[in-house]
Amino acid sequence: MNSFERMTPEQVAQLALAITATAEVLGQSLTADAAEMMADDLADHPASTIAGALKSCRRELNGKLTLAAILQRVQAADGRPGKDEAWAIAMTTNDEFETIVLTDEIHLALAAAKPVLDAGDKVGARMAFISAYERFVGQAREEAKPVNWHVSIGFDSNRRIQAVTRAVQMQRIPRERGMLYLTDLAHEAVTEDGRAIAGLLTGTPCQPSDKVRTKLEAIRADLDLKRKEKAAAREAERCRVIAALNLRKTTLISQAAAIQSKEAARGR
């Protein structure tokens, strides 16, 4: 659902006048009916965004003013990152200690590409991600949905503050929401055990308590076991696929040989 309220009839009429005036600036005569139809098609977008798009059209267009030209500029101003930046953001989600600020479309596209990524095919995963991302972005823009950035909190408290601060500076999350995040993070107590856990990644040595050290060793052993199990599962799956392909190849060869034998028998 579009979180922007659709323009009122009066606003649509004003927009039609603005479209007509923009067309005249570009040396184009636009009928009132055509301007009203274009205004109605744009009425689901914020008025300020459309005004900026019309201004860009007046500055940049050399030909006729079209609905596509206006929409292109409206959509470019919606704050969604391009496919390459979106992929780079998606890749940072591999680090569970990293705090990530991402859009709904990045999250959905990453979910679509994850099976390929888990199989170890990073090139294929990127292609799958970009295809899904462009599809989700296209759907969102077709429905005039505003971009929705949300924060995925990682384990490293220092990185949380940096990520949220950067997101506020880039205007990806509202300043008020960012301040709430930062206020919550500022009140988190950092214990010696917490510093020790963070030190596993930062390289800053700090001795945890015996209880936490035991837990860390258990976690490390469990992670090693799971890593080995995943590797074994991937190898088993690879062998299964190769065996299936070889069987299919053998079957096709047998079928081809049988067809050739029948054709040879008919020719005698």
Task: Summarize the structure in words.
Helix 3 crosses helix 4 (about 65-75) and helix 5 packs across helix 7. A two-stranded antiparallel ribbon has the order 1-2. Among the domains are: about 10-75; about 85-190, no CATH class. Helices cover about 70% and strands about 5% of the residues. It has about 270 residues and is mostly helical. The longest helix has about 60 residues, at about 210-265. Mean pLDDT is about 80; it is low at about 200-205. The protein is flat, with a radius of gyration of 28 Å.
Poorly predicted runs are: 200-204
Roughly what fraction of the amino acids lie in strands?
Answer: under 5%
How would you classify the helix and strand content by structural class? mainly alpha
Please report the number of helical segments.
Answer: 11
Average predicted local confidence, pLDDT? 82
Shape, principal axes of CA atoms: flat
Radius of gyration computed on alpha carbons: 28 Å
For the terminal residues, how far apart are their CA atoms?
71 Å
- Counting copies of identical and different chains, the oligomeric state is single chain
Summarize the helix and strand pattern as letters: HHHHHEHHEHHHH
Please list the strands of the largest sheet in the order they lie side by side.
Answer: 1-2
Helix content: over 70%
Number of strand elements: 2
Main beta sheet: 2 strands, antiparallel
Protein name: DUF4391 domain-containing protein
Organism: Pseudomonas saxonica
